[in-house]
Design a protein that fits this description.
single chain, 115 residues, mainly alpha, 0% strand
Length: 115
Amino acid sequence: MSDVHLGALIGATSFGALATEDAPPAKAFCVREQPWAPGPRITPFLQYQTEQAWQEDEQRVKAWEAIRDEKELLKTQNELRQKLLEMIGGLPAQRQIFMRRLPARFKWTGSPSKN
């Protein structure tokens, strides 16, 4: 018998032996014990994000309440401007006007079938 046929025979018999063993119980494939009730729910990560957002909001409110005069307002405005520029990666060194140019102009006749 050739090696290919012998390998196929051994593979088939071992596969048959595996198939006859007891299958795992259905509970082994269960991810959750009970399905969630339909409708909106808050996951732990969403709960964490919500708590973070409320903390940041409280800090913003305290910062705005601490402003008493124009000097403090201008200081806060400058800090916010610097934070924003840092987030977007700054502005270009030279200001440029954006002029969009169309590659060609087409005369519109009002109906796609007439073009």
